Amino acid sequence: MHEMSLAESVLQIIEDNAARQGFRRVSAVYVELGRLAGVEVEALRFAFDAVTRDSVADGARLEIIDVPGQGWCLNCSETVPIDQLYDACPRCGAYQVHPSQGIDMRVKELAVE
Q1: Whole-prediction pTM value?
Q2: Where are the beta strands (DSSP E) in the chain?
């Protein structure tokens, strides 16, 4: 389950920022999560709750910001919406779509005290 290592990475980002900025508690973590990132949201929530126990983020809400998938179609030279990796282009039907959005996960914002 790679969601556990992702949750641990998020906690590391939180702890690094807490040390640098001097805050004592995080009440919410806003994470942009691409639909094409291959992350199971409920597994990430479970892992986040587990790894943040007894930390500066204990009890923090994990707010997921959904980022839709997009790709660049090499055949029709257009940016198109895609729901899954390796989908055909919805405009021309070609399978030469390079994902350009919705493949990442990043911590966007922390609500701190």
Answers
A1: 0.88
A2: 26-34, 61-67, 70-73, 78-81, 97-101, 105-112
